[in-house]
Every structure is written in structure tokens, then in C-alpha cells.
Design brief:
Largest sheet: 2 strands, antiparallel
Structural class: mainly alpha
Strand order of the largest sheet: 1-2
Helix content: 40-55%
Radius of gyration: 15 Å
Number of domains: 1
Bound molecules: iron/sulfur cluster
Order of helices and strands: HHHEEHH
Number of helices: 5
């Protein structure tokens, strides 16, 4: 029994908060992005700026997952009504300098 529990935790990469995988392949990310409608998307320039901010953020895990909201940043950054959920405003502003007004997470 202990083995099963330990194996389960190992499958979840040590995350005890949920059973969802925190890893996604580029193909999975692309599949999610393909469902985002143009009217809900930021411009390509804004998207690139947001991802650049995420790449330098200490809260990015596995090159895909935001540790504050659990989102895949490649998907969250695409939505114009989403903002960076970081508690530090200086970090959040890296996402908003070119963006239209945002809703907080
Ligand atoms: S806190 Fe903001 S900048 Fe950092 S990974 Fe999350 S969404 Fe990206």
C-alpha cells in the first residue's frame, strides 16, 4: 500500500495539491492554443512580450507552468483578458506594458 501511495506521488512530480500533470508537450500546448479564438487573443507582439517575461520569471516551472496559477503560460499569455498572477506588481507589469486593461486572475 505504501508503495502505491509513493508511486502516485511520484507520478504527480511531488505535487500534493492535485492529480493533474504539470508537464505538457509542445503538441499538447499547440492543441490548446488552436482553440483560442482570435477575438480573445492578444497580438503576436504582446504574446511574445508576455512569454519573454515568463522565461525570465523565477515562478516558471518546467518551462511551461506558472507556480502562482498553475496555468501553462503559453496558453494563459494568449488570452487578452488574463494577467500575470504574480504577487509583485513589478513582475505583473512585465505582462501589461503593451496590453489593454487586464482582469486579474
Ligand atoms: S508569475 Fe507571471 S511572469 Fe511569472 S511565470 Fe507566472 S505568468 Fe509568467
Amino acid at each position: 500500500m505504501i508503495y502505491i501511495i509513493e508511486a502516485g506521488i511520484q507520478d504527480r512530480e511531488g505535487c500534493k495539491g492535485c492529480s493533474a500533470s504539470v508537464h505538457a508537450t509542445a503538441e499538447q500546448i499547440q492543441r490548446l492554443l488552436s482553440k483560442v479564438k482570435a477575438e480573445h487573443s492578444v497580438s503576436d507582439e504582446q504574446y511574445a512580450m508576455r512569454l519573454a517575461a515568463c522565461r525570465t520569471c523565477e515562478s516558471l516551472a518546467y518551462a511551461s507552468t506558472c507556480m502562482h496559477c498553475g496555468c501553462f503560460v503559453q496558453v494563459r499569455a494568449k488570452f487578452k483578458d488574463k494577467g500575470c498572477p504574480h504577487p509583485d506588481q513589478a513582475v505583473r507589469l512585465r505582462w501589461t506594458s503593451l496590453s489593454t486593461p487586464l482582469e486579474e486572475a
